[in-house]
């Protein structure tokens, strides 16, 4: 399981990196490499050039401001775990990232790498989609910002052009009183989720849910929004009946595939269960 | 491609193909065969080394990406004269049998205890869930790491 | 003989190198001029090779050559069976490389020799193989239709039926007051070793000698096979055992590569090394355990077992490998486990399918049998309203019945008996230590969203396969002593255990035993190896015999030196002593050596009980272990520290097979679990609450140590215990798990079915 042959470049600037990607037909950026390296080992990818992003400046910053949380593309899981500010600034992010892989991988795996890899069961893409994140990218044609809902096109497929590099992901501001839940179930700790659910809502003056957002991972070709759950929550008090309705809606929202770890019927029910549990947790916060 | 980095405190310069992993580079070019390959796809943890203070899977890292880094392998955590406190605890608790996963577990545990010398059993289990051992059932490994914590702790409650 | 070291938790010698990263595994060898072998494997389950074109691969810079079956005059050699080598199996044995037909995904087609593994893998993609597909036989039921045949000549996909018989089962079933029939299945999983396999061969054309590194488990036997296949006398081949990263029954059997790599080295007259990668390992190393039982039990109303009968069907994969029949044989012979079952009739069929062939995995057949019977017993207890513990108490073989004859198996005519022990005492100890009576009231309880379930099951573990093991002791130049063993290390710690035994037998400090050599064919005249929980019992007993001979030799030689009667000579540390305080350094006798052997045709049976307390989240189908206890009586624990390691280690492997590990194929025989993200091994967070108690109450009467094989007791009952505990947790849903592993999907489906039934 040795890697296929490729050239390697380690540019010092973003512009150089983009130029390298643009001038090679089959080049691929490598950040932490924690998803790309196994793909190479199985020869499921065989780029002719790897462009290492590790020397690019300023991509490893976490900034927290009134307009939200910005994570540089080279921010590692470990950095999110260590940054105690994030637990208040974006609680579901911290909760979701706690499920990512294992110690050694968390020391190297990056936010940008996970988004670009776009595994449908990965946490970061799920959080980005559920939270209406924006993904800032730079390419030969310049900078652009891609809403998360337009970013994930299929399994391991994104809206990134071959010469584009993710620069940062922007999560909208998180009001302190927002209610949220994140639930995931996997066969073993650190495995990809059999399914995971992230959700949040605000409460109006009557204590009814507004601005509900819900999304799921591990149940489709991409992370998905659970629109039925959002409809079931908006305008309702989050009580037992609402939670039950939302859980039913969650199962109805998804059409999961069978795979070796779980079948479709199980996954469908699991999304309902996780939605129910995320809502119970959200109401208790 | 030529790469220079520090391994176990010594400067190393090697000429490798871009596609060579750090694990293969350590084993083949530097003959540091204590770093083992158990899966080569980032699951088993046998190839764990410490890069710039952090435990990493050396099969998921290119040798060229180690340029300028300080790499520590199991050999760098050993000396001839006696076993280290971590190794002593492993031996006492019979925390190894066939020994194949052991170097990766020693490096991981060393990195953990260096950073978190007061970690509890749950944290040790969580961290070591990235290292597969087929012989021991893990119980003795957790006991050994728990016991070794003391050697990483300072009287003032900090890390040594 | 003193007992200074035997019975003590002596820390291992091996650890000093392993902990420092100084073990030497086969991949650590890198001689000059080495070529790396990479193997092209079949990507189809069943097909006929119409052509192989390696010309493009040979153009890749760094590629030396490509070897296929065509390079073997007279066709590729066949790998013979090591255990149960019955003539019936002959047509089903595996050629070392595919010749005309491909029978499983992973079967070797070609060997590329290159200057690096990476280049070899580049070349693999350039070998063009044309294959005419044949309908795949993806499971035993399809095999039984005998429509698509793996082997045309025998005309059937069934290689054999083992018949286990005792008493007259059909007669007892005719009049039985109660019978129950169940279909139960165990999942395909295997003895994955953390070190993948590896072989390195060095051929010296001048002297005609072949050195093969990477040998393990049974090097003497493998040398006999290789010598015959490759056309060399046995003494021209040296099998070298390096450090071995785990065995579990799977590593060290003779596989295709054990011929292909030496053959390649001889062809090209250069050292050749092959190191299995993990993806290959998952599809090339022996699989195990996939078995289905359709069995029936007959009982009296009070729960006394009257008889067992039925069929077991084992999915053998594509070929009969060296020890492939053991599991199917054992499942029939040991279906009754530690229980008194007077009438047994089990037919165990071996079905060839288009999957990786099977071999033994720790507790072969016994894990399956334990799951089948213990599952059945809990169902019987519920049917008859008998307490599930009392049911087991009532039926365990008692110490007064020892030795106890069990079912014999045809056509191998295997008769066997349990040697000794008090099975009931071990069960009671387990219940007490587990605080069963306190916990039993939790049975089925729903607490904080999780259902509690408990189970206790009993097991026996066979060990000490004969016929023989050998050992040799020799005085070194510096007056220390070396021990040379015919058995092998697969990582268990035999260097320490044998040094303990030798030191006590010679009544000297352990550090006087300077080195324990094992495994390689150079050290002793013959050896048998590491399988069937035999190393300590057989090898250790051989050490005792060697030590007696060695002492006699020292007495004779010492008496001549000191001019006294041999009976007056003793060994003390680094000297031999005579009357009147006379002594001379042992170094004076450097070169003196004596060999010993232990012969045994009977088996030891260690035994015990597992108790499990689990909780189940019925909505997730998730199981957590609250407490799990193994109590095992091993007769004599030479090293209690290491014995604990064997029990807990094998238990967690068993929990892996019960809960996580599953080798899966689709209906076309395509392999679906080719990575460690697909094949789930237990990790440190999965099964934390496991413990064991080792008893030494009933030493084996059939060997001088009193030891019984003890490497498998943890694994054997893990499936039965977990399935019963989960069944009890989910009793309010009427859930009866009938297959392993107990995946979230499967448990959730059982709960759903129970809820549907309740609603109707």
What does this structure look like?
The complex is a heterotrimer of chains A (285), B (160) and C (760). With 285 residues, chain A is of the alpha+beta class. Chain A folds into 3 domains: 7-52, Uridine Diphospho-n-acetylenolpyruvylglucosamine Reductase, domain 2, CATH 3.30.43; 62-172, Uridine Diphospho-n-acetylenolpyruvylglucosamine Reductase, domain 3 (2-Layer Sandwich), CATH 3.30.465.10; 179-284, 2-Layer Sandwich (Enolase-like, domain 1), CATH 3.30.390.50. Helices cover 35% and strands 25% of the residues of chain A. In chain A, the strands form 4 sheets. In chain A, strands 4-5-10-6-7 form a 5-stranded antiparallel beta sheet. In chain A, strands 11-12-13-14 form a 4-stranded antiparallel beta sheet, with helices on both faces. Chain B has 160 residues and is α+β, with helices and mostly antiparallel strands. Chain B folds into 2 domains: 2-76, Beta-grasp domain (Ubiquitin-like (UB roll), Roll); 85-152, DNA polymerase, domain 1 (Orthogonal Bundle), CATH 1.10.150.120. In chain B, 32% of the residues lie in helices and 14% in strands. Chain B has a 5-stranded mixed beta sheet, with helices on both faces. In chain B, a hairpin with a 2-residue loop joins β3 (48-51) and β4 (54-57). The radius of gyration of chain B is 15 Å and the shape is globular. Chain C is an alpha+beta fold and 760 residues long. Chain C has 3 domains: 15-23 and 465-599, Aldehyde oxidase/xanthine dehydrogenase, molybdopterin binding domain (Aldehyde Oxidoreductase, domain 4, 2-Layer Sandwich); 31-134 and 191-284, Aldehyde Oxidoreductase, domain 3 (Alpha-Beta Complex); 422-456 and 603-760, Aldehyde oxidase/xanthine dehydrogenase, molybdopterin binding domain (Aldehyde Oxidoreductase, domain 4, 2-Layer Sandwich), CATH 3.30.365. Helix content of chain C is 27%, strand content 26%. Chain C is globular, with a radius of gyration of 27 Å. At the B-C interface, α2, α3, α4 and α5 of B face α1 and α16 of C.
């Amino acid at each position: 399981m040795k890697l296929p042959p490729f050239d390697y470049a380690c540019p010092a600037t973003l512009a150089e990196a983009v130029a390298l990607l643009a001038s090679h037909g089959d080049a691929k950026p490598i950040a932490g490499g924690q998803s790309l390296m196994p793909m190479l080992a199985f020869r499921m990818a065989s780029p002719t050039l790897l462009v290492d992003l590790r020397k690019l400046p300023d991509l490893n910053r976490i900034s927290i401001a009134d307009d939200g949380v910005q994570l540089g593309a080279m921010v590692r899981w470990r950095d999110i775990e260590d940054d105690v500010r994030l637990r208040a600034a974006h609680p579901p992010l911290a909760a979701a990232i706690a499920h990512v892989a294992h110690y050694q991988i968390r020391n190297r795996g990056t936010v940008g790498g996970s988004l670009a890899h776009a595994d449908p069961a990965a946490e970061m893409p799920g959080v980005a989609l559920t939270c209406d994140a924006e993904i800032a990218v730079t390419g030969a044609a310049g900078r652009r910002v891609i809403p998360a809902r337009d970013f994930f096109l299929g399994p391991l497929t994104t809206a990134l052009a071959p010469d584009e590099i993710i620069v940062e992901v922007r999560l909208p501001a998180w009001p302190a009183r927002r209610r949220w839940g994140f639930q995931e179930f996997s066969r073993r700790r650190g495995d990809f989720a059999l399914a995971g659910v992230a959700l949040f809502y605000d409460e109006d003056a009557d204590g009814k849910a507004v601005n509900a957002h819900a999304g799921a991972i591990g149940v489709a070709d991409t992370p998905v929004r659970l629109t039925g759950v959002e409809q079931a929550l908006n305008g309702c008090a989050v009580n037992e009946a609402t939670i039950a309705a939302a859980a039913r809606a969650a199962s109805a929202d998804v059409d999961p595939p069978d795979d070796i770890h779980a079948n479709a019927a199980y996954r469908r029910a699991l999304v309902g269960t996780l939605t129910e549990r995320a809502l119970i947790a959200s109401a208790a916060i | 491609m030529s790469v220079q980095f520090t391994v176990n405190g010594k400067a190393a310069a090697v000429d490798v193909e871009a596609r060579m992993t750090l694990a293969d580079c350590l084993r083949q070019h530097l003959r540091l065969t204590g770093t083992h390959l158990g899966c080569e796809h980032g699951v088993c943890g046998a190839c764990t080394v410490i890069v710039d203070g952090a435990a990493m899977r050396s099969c998921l890292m290119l040798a060229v990406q180690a340029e300028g880094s300080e790499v520590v392998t199991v050999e760098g955590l050993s000396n001839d004269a006696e076993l280290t406190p971590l190794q002593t605890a492993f031996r006492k608790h019979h925390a190894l049998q066939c020994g194949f996963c052991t170097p990766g577990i020693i490096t991981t545990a060393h990195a953990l205890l260096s950073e978190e010398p007061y970690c509890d059993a749950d944290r040790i289990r969580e961290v070591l869930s990235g290292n597969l051992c087929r012989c021991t059932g893990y119980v003795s490994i957790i006991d050994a790491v728990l016991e070794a914590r003391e050697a990483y702790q300072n009287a003032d409650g900090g890390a040594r | 003989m003193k007992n200074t070291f035997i019975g003590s938790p002596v820390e291992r010698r091996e650890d000093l190198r392993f902990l420092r990263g100084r073990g030497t595994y086969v991949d650590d060898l890198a001689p000059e001029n080495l070529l790396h072998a990479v193997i092209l494997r079949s990507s189809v389950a069943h097909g006929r090779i119409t052509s192989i074109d390696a010309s493009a691969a040979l153009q890749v810079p760094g590629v030396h050559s490509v070897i296929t079956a065509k390079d073997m005059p007279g066709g590729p050699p066949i790998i013979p069976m090591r255990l149960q080598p019955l003539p019936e199996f002959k047509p089903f044995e595996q050629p070392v490389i595919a010749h005309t037909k491909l029978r499983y995904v992973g079967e070797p087609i070609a060997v590329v020799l290159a200057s690096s593994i990476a280049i070899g893998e580049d070349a693999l993609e350039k070998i063009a193989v044309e294959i005419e597909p044949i309908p795949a036989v993806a499971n035993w039921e399809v095999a039984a239709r005998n429509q698509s045949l793996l082997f045309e000549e025998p005309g059937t996909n069934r290689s054999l039926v083992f018949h286990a018989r005792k008493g007259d089962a059909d007669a007892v079933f005719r009049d039985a007051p109660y019978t129950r029939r169940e279909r139960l299945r165990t999942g395909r999983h295997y003895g994955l070793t953390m070190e993948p396999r590896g072989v390195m061969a060095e051929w010296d054309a001048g002297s005609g000698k072949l050195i093969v590194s990477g040998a393990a488990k049974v090097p003497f036997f493998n040398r006999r096979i290789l010598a015959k296949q490759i056309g060399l006398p046995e003494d021209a081949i040296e099998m070298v055992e390096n450090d071995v990263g785990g065995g579990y029954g799977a590593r060290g059997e003779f596989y295709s590569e054990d011929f292909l790599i030496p053959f390649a080295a001889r062809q090209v007259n250069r050292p050749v090394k092959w190191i299995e990668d993990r993806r290959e390992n998952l599809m090339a190393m022996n699989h195990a355990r996939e078995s289905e039982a359709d069995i029936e039990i007959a009982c009296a109303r009070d729960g006394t077992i009257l008889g067992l009968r039925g069929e077991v069907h084992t999915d053998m994969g594509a070929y009969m490998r060296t020890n492939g029949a053991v599991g199917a044989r054992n499942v029939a012979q040991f279906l009754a486990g530690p229980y008194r079952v007077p009438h047994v009739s089990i037919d165990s069929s071996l079905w060839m399918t288009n999957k990786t062939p099977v071999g033994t995995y720790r507790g072969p057949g016994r894990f399956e049998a334990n799951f089948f019977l213990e599952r059945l017993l809990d169902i019987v207890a519920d049917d008859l309203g008998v307490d599930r513990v009392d049911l087991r108490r009532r039926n365990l073989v008692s110490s007064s019945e020892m030795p106890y004859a069990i079912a014999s198996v045809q056509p191998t005519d295997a008769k066997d008996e349990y040697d000794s022990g008090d099975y009931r005492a071990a069960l009671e100890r387990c219940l007490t230590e587990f605080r069963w009576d306190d916990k039993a009231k939790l049975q089925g309880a729903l607490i904080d969203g999780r259902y509690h379930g408990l189970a206790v099951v009993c097991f026996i573990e066979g060990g000490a396969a004969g016929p023989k093991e050998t050992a040799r002791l020799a005085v070194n130049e510096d007056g220390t002593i070396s021990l040379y063993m015919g058995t092998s290390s697969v990582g268990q710690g035999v260097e320490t255990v044998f040094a303990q035994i030798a030191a006590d037998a010679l009544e000297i400090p352990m550090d006087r035993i300077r080195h324990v050599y094992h495994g390689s064919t150079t050290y002793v005249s013959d050896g048998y190896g590491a399988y069937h929980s035999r190393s300590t019992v057989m090898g250790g007993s051989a050490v005792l015999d060697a030590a007696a001979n060695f002492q006699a030799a020292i007495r004779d030689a010492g008496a001549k030196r000191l001019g006294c009667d041999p009976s007056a000579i003793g060994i003390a540390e680094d000297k031999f002593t005579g009357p009147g305080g006379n002594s001379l350094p042992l170094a004076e006798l450097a070169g003196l050596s004596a060999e010993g052997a232990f012969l045994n045709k009977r088996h030891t049976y260690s035994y015990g009980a597992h108790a499990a307390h689990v909780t189940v989240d019925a909505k997730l189908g998730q199981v957590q272990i609250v407490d799990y206890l193994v109590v095992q009586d091993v007769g004599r624990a030479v090293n209690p520290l290491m014995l604990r390691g064997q029990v807990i280690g094998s238990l967690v492997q068993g929990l892996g097979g019960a809960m996580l590990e599953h080798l899966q194929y689709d209906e076309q025989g395509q392999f679906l679990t080719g990575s460690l993200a697909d094949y789930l091994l237990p990790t440190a967070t999965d099964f934390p609450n496991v413990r064991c108690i080792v008893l030494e109450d009933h030493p084996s009467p059939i060997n001088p140590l009193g030891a019984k094989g003890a490497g498998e007791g943890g694994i054997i009952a893990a499936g039965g215990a977990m399935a019963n505990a989960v069944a009890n947790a989910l009793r309010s849903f009427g859930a009866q798990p009938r297959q392993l592993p107990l995946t979230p999907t499967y448990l959730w489906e059982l709960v759903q079915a129970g809820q549907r039934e309740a609603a109707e």
